[in-house]
Amino acid sequence: MSKLRGFLSFIGHYKYLIVIVGGIALVGFLDENSYLHRMQLDMQISDLKDEIRIYEEKNAESMKRIAEIDSGGLSIEKIARENYYMKSADEDIFVLSSDMDTKVTKENETTE
């Protein structure tokens, strides 16, 4: 019984401190609106803002390309030549790439 009285005396003496520490723990760490949860959401928001910036840059680049295509036939020909390796009937196209060299050497190694 003396241990119980000592415990109750301790709680009675430090009741405000216990309530303050419990409240800080609840608000800071345990609640769904806690400080830790808020920090995680802030980091997620900054990541999403970075993604928005990247997509806006891609959108601006795409809009620029669309404007080029709408402006005339020479830009369409340029895109066809660069991206799709199209050519006119009287010319030859040579594609220089280091990727082709590695594919050829790998194929030679596997056949040997």
Describe the structure.
The protein is mainly alpha-helical and 112 residues long. It is 81% helix and 0% strand. It contains five helices and no strands. The longest helix is centred in the middle third of the chain and has 37 residues, at 35-71. It is rod-shaped and about 105 Å long. The model has no long low-confidence stretch (mean pLDDT 81).
Rg on CA atoms, Å: 34 Å
The count of DSSP E runs of length 2 or more, i.e. the number of strands, is 0
Proportion of residues in extended strands: under 5%
Order of helices and strands: HHHHH
Give the N-terminus to C-terminus distance in angstroms.
Answer: 90 Å
Largest sheet: none
Low-confidence stretches: none
The mean pLDDT is: 81
Rough outline: rod-shaped
Number of helix segments?
Answer: 5
- What is the SS-derived class? mainly alpha
Helix content: over 70%
